[in-house]
Amino acid sequence: MAAVRTLSLQRKQSAARIAEARRSAPVRFGSVDRGYDAAAREPLFALSPIPLWLEDYSGVKALIDGWRADGVTDIRAFLAEDLSRVAASSQAIRILAVNQKVLDLFGARDLDDLRANVGEIFRNDMLLSHLEEVAQLFEGGTEFASLAANYTLTGKRLDVQLKARILPGHEDDWSCVLLSTEDVTEREQARRRAAESEEYARGLFDHSPVSLWVEDFSAVRELIEGVRDSGVSDFRVFVDVHPEFVQRCLSEIRVIDVNRHTLELFCAPSREALTDQLDSIFRDAMEQHFKEQLIDLWNGKLFQQREVVNYSLKGDELHVHMQFSVFPGHEHDWSLVQVALTDITARKRAEAYLEFLGKHDALTKLYNRSFFIDELNRLERKRATSVTIIVADLNGLKTVNDTLGHAAGDGLLRRAGEVLQKAVARPSCAARIGGDEFVILMPMASEVEGAAMMETLENLVEINNQFYSSERLSFALGMATAQAGERLEDVVKLADERMYAAKRALYETGAVPERRQPGH
Q1: Which among 433, 431, 511 is positioned nearest to 475, based on CA atoms?
Q2: Cα–chain-centroid distance for residue 446?
Q3: What pLDDT is recorded for position 186?
């Protein structure tokens, strides 16, 4: 149907057609010799279970012929440019006859009532569907179809499937067109609800505050089942022996879709850029996590949660909490999998910093007293070789604090930390165990190695003093090496005693560093 059909038959023309129809011999419906009134009374028309219309499209043909003569070739663009042209075409249509189903569908008493209210039936977005009808006729068709919105006389919206055909014998003037308007409101409402539901689901996916991936793991499943079919029973041993299998599985994952937050999280400009560089995202530390994921899949665990490491396209390490789930109904092939990634990088950094603070001195960045005690106990339990311990006391810290303030003292402590970090490497470790007291634990080290460490410290202290014009850095050092059966706690005490002896000697000789004067 077209929109806003308001033209009616003139009485004189109607009478002439009716008279001619009455004079015509009864022949098959649709005959070129039969009048429209007789055709409308044909049982196939009157008793059809769907609404049928007979309409005169000769006015539409005249408009189309005129546009074609004016050089119009792209009819859709031409009509869309000015919808008044579509309205003119709609108004050029004349309703000749309808069957009872039309009257019932639109709530009209009779044909006159229908014609009088045709503007209420065909309105609003009906013009757009009529545009498509005109385009189909313009392109040479004798049939057209469209999905249109009509309205009953009570204002209820109807979705109708319109199909039309120019009846044989009227191809030259389009004066008799048969149309059907099937009520498909229920179907279209269901379709719209489905579309709205899909749009809602898509919105939830796209705008989720977590990274969402939809993936196809079917190729991964085939690889795993191939290993199982080969007789492998211990899959963990298999992937340990064949790390290339893990890489192969990782490369076989097909990404179907990702949401917007995923692009933001991984610094990807587009979905294509992301999927083209998956090897930059899933690498290094990710491989061990993925191996555990494969082992869970081997064991039938289709829902998994774990913390993993990924990488952004800028190379930044991302710590994420991963939730992996095979969609219901796809358990047999894993062809549809959802992966949700929650960014926990900030949390992991905070945890790492708290862990650092739990083991380190915030000022010097060396280990703290708590770590030193734990490490001392660990070495005591597992000691099978010699352990050398060096105790170092920072000379002159109290004087600097009293005369220059604690900020200057803190600067001196930081310099001490720099020297100790430079001198000590694993498996040895250095810790600040008091205000100005430090200790170096050297497992598997002899007295000779301990003496070499003390010499290294003294050399680094001299180098450090060359770069600072403020207070001189100086340590009093004491060393002891554990003998067989000797408790490490006693070794620490011995090293501490030797450090104090060295400190007394420094004060007795006046070698304790004095405050530097400006210009010296």
Answers
A1: 511
A2: 57
A3: 93
Question: What is the CATH number for 413?
Answer: 3.30.70.270
The CB-side HSE value for 516 (13 A sphere, CA atoms) comes to 12
pLDDT tens digits, 380-392: 888 767 899 999 9
DSSP output for 150-208: EE-TT--EEEEEEEEEEPTT-TTT---EEEEEEE-HHHHHHHHHHHHHHHHHHHHHHT-
Q: Supply the range of the domain harboring residue 220.
A: 207-349
Give the residue from 286, 318, 349 where a domain finishes.
349
Question: Worst-scoring range by mean pLDDT, 40-54, 191-205, 493-507?
Answer: 40-54
Shared domain check, 121 and 174: yes
Tokens of 294: 């494969």
What three-state secondary structure class fits 395? Answer: coil
Distances (CA, A) of 426 to 96, 318, 440, 464: 100, 28, 11, 22
When pLDDT is cut at 50, 70 and 90, the band that residue 45 belongs to is confident
Q: pTM (2 decimals)? A: 0.59
Distance (Å, rounded) from C-alpha 237 to C-alpha 240? Answer: 5
pLDDT (mean) for 109-118: 92
> Rounded to an integer, what distance in angstroms lies between the CA atom of residue 378 and that of residue 442?
13
For the chain, give me the number of helices (H) and strands (E)?
A: 24, 14
pLDDT single digits (tens) 384-418: 678 999 999 999 888 898 888 999 999 999 999 99
Lowest mean pLDDT among 19-28, 164-173, 230-239, 504-513: 19-28
Residue 301 lies in a domain: yes
Task: Say if CB 145 and CB 161 are below 8 A apart.
Answer: yes
CA dist 41 and 499 (Å) reads: 123
DSSP string covering 265-277: HTT-SSHHHHHHT
Whether residue 136 is contained in a domain is answered as yes
**Last residue of some domain: 325, 349, 373?**
349
Any idea what the CATH number is for the domain that residue 331 is in?
Answer: 3.30.450.20
Q: Which two tokens stand for residue 333?
A: 């092939």
